[in-house]
């Protein structure tokens, strides 16, 4: 997702930068309306219309780089240098070792100059030749977000709701984001607006000047805007208009008047009139009970208000009759055109005024579309009693199409069905979370890729990308109930499908259009295509399977680490090969080497690192790494943005970074209930830095966890992240309950943990001093402590800190320590890295355990880099690690780009992990749609990460051996940019 340059509000280059954007006042009318837009005739005290402008500053100028067709050509600049016969200047040794963009690391990019992004000024086309409503299937297959709906005109585009994944969906289906004029939210929450920040950032990064868009929603919209201000640097131009009750911080008391009675007109021009009708839950309605002593008022909270949008097109004039005009004394000329445009004229040969109705056929009423979001049964009571909809029931205004965004728990009730029937012959499109919609993957490119990877290596890729019917039914009790209970819906009701259209104009095409719905794609069909394309894949599948069949034999080759013997876990040995005796010394080791089959070279052995003792007697229920997103900057067809689940099975799990779409990826990997269980079981969430591609899925996860655990006894979840993230979460919690506690990454460094231990000792000491029999014991302890007279002076960074700094921090550290213990972890240490201000990597260490012989062995150690240039701190942290997950944004020939943006190349990432047993590379530039460029000769202990890849600790020995086979799967791939909307990261 783009940085925050232009309108790239969310990318790590496009999703990056850390200065706050300026908030400027701007006249609402000039920003939000078109020339002939009508506004409310008089001020509406309980409603507010506000326009917020975040003027944006680009991080850099965008280059219009054409698609690159060869992996030998990595950038346009390099191509030009080759053409000129110039060689790339060798980097200085100092820069090659530790080169980085200092200004970027400090948050002072050299191109940080204000850019004035203007709203699009499109010339309206009153006589639209094409207009339709289209379902954008975001969230329909995984039920993690509210579906989006597109209202399309020749020169205007309106999108209703922007849940997570919308941008990725549009890229997949070639829907031009640059054409969007307005975004309307039916509610303001993570379900309907989770994809908004990333979408705005992408728009801001398009072209040389970036693009702007209008965002409109209930008054809660301001809470979202305030939250985004905390991490969208000098934000792109976000023009917002909120309507509805003006809520104070914790809600407002709204008198029971006509506050919700009349539609609020948002747009009214030659093309369309869009109005909003507000819905509130019945629990906010006043009581009519005569014995009630309370006043007639309702308390609303942020997120309670929902919106029905009414879209009305102008009426279509009747057909012009030239014979009638001639009979009324009109001769051919401009007067005939004036009549067709609705103007009256004087007759040329008769002393009469000719009106349009005299020469035109009967007008055709303009089509009307309703978008209804009734999120709960509490809102349904208010929906049924809405007086403002009466004119649409009684035939005064005929509704042609109703798109229902309401969930099946509402639409399947008899009350809702009765209400639907009041619209007569309207076409109803059920776009809520229906069972049928879950059977077909929305992101087909990603699903196809997942199916191919699953066929080749199901151990590392258990998700096929396609859900069978039984999986769908078992996924959600509500879905199963809705598939069995038959509630009679109107005959004109259809289940929404991906890209389903309802044509409004031209009138000859009026009605449903299923021709744009993608054809059904099954996993079996994908595999058939794969076998035709790459026949050799059959042998590769057999060889990959052989790795797991021999994994038991491989483990027999493991010798005790303390004997300093080269360990071999690969299944090279045949069944007759001798296995070294565990009691052999150095001479035995040499003898064992002589037993190695001739096919194994010494280079192969030298490439192998010692088998870590932490994997001794490891089980498949210890730990699993699930890569939910492996792309950088913005989501693409094949790679989502960064997110990693550390699955601890019965002990829960944790997230390392949480980019947009994390919840949807969890559902694709584990199913509906499996994902819910994973969210409920999260122990904590760790965020590496503030760039949007690493944290914009966080609010959705936290809000869902809060909903799932509602009514149960549970503790707030701990979020560990850069200090700027706290501002976002604090602001967002006014909109939705996140039930979390925040801990700055800076308080989880090695030095801070030492300070915590010292403070813990002091506190426990004070408690013991207060005991009558504990004074003498504690005095003895103090004499040998850090704080005793004559003890060495502690570093400033290792001090506990002043009281102001540590207020509440110690308690959260204490809680985190407890949570780590419950999860079987011994340590979580954040490591400062070189990327942008407040960027961190992290070290996770499992607690030590006993082996079968009762000997204590260390737990596994996982290191995750976040985004960074190679740095010594991270390299030191990798020593003795079991797994390093490191970003590898660029290929090795793009060192200049890596330095400029403080990222790493593939080779640099591998060099950082010299002390690790295994390395998994991730966070690839979206210039590599499917597989990045890498030098296979350096990948002896390394593997490329893919979305949905699941690496169990027990499978680490064979991890690098799968890579050549994965490369076979993508042997025909080239570097091509996926679409005009995917920008260079």
Characterise the protein shown here:
The chain is 29% helix and 17% strand. With 985 residues, it is α/β, with parallel strands linked by helices. Among the domains are: 129-245 and 260-282 and 301-316 and 365-430, Metallo-beta-lactamase, Chain A, CATH 3.60.15.10; 322-358, no CATH class; 613-763 and 806-982, Metallo-beta-lactamase, Chain A (4-Layer Sandwich). The strands form 8 sheets. It has an 8-stranded mixed β-sheet. It has a 7-stranded mixed β-sheet with strand order 10-11-13-16-17-18-19. β20 and β21 form a beta hairpin.
Topology:
Layout: E1 22-24, H1 28-32, E2 53-55, H2 76-83, H3 93-98, H4 102-105, E3 131-136, E4 148-153, E5 157-160, H5 166-172, E6 182-184, H6 190-193, H7 196-204, E7 213-218, H8 221-228, E8 238-243, E9 252-255, E10 264-268, E11 273-279, E12 297-300, E13 306-312, H9 322-327, H10 334-340, E14 345-346, E15 353-354, H11 356-359, E16 368-372, H12 377-384, H13 390-393, E17 401-404, H14 408-411, H15 414-421, E18 427-430, H16 444-456, H17 469-475, H18 477-484, E19 493-495, E20 501-505, E21 511-513, H19 523-533, H20 537-549, H21 551-556, H22 586-594, H23 602-607, E22 624-629, E23 643-647, E24 653-658, H24 662-670, H25 672-680, E25 682-686, H26 698-708, E26 717-721, H27 723-732, E27 740-744, H28 750-769, H29 775-783, H30 803-806, H31 809-822, E28 825-832, E29 840-846, E30 849-850, E31 856-857, E32 861-864, H32 872-878, E33 881-887, H33 895-900, H34 906-912, E34 916-922, E35 942-944, E36 949-952, H35 959-969
